[in-house]
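Chapter review: from sequence to fold.
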Amino acid sequence: QVQLAESGGGLVHPGGSLRLSCAASERTFSSYIMGWFRQAPGKEREFVAAVRWIYGSTYYADAVKGRSTISGDQAKNTVQLQMNSLTSEDTAVYYCAARRSTFSGITSSLLQNGNFFDSWGHGTQVTVAQ
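The token string follows.
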């Protein structure tokens, strides 16, 4: 399994922005689905965003759609999550996830399920507060 390491978390003021990065131990652009999930205290893990490089497809949770962008740096084997207009509701530990798959029939609802992914990073804390 690919090894993943997140970075970029920290304390951000409401309305601010943050860019999270996930470094993969191997090339993921051609055959992996990469995702971001988050888990707030006392809440279940939830989907944030995902990308399928091979099809050029991106997916976003309604809670972050329009103010978040998932992107990647192929040369560095990294995937980034840019989040803007942050609120306290975005406070959580953010996890990077991956699964190797080139199957075209994977639905967006399936990859929004954390159980679909089989590689996970250790997470990075994002705190939005004054």
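Two observations follow directly from the output. Residues 108-111 form the longest helix (4 residues). Helices lie at 108-111.
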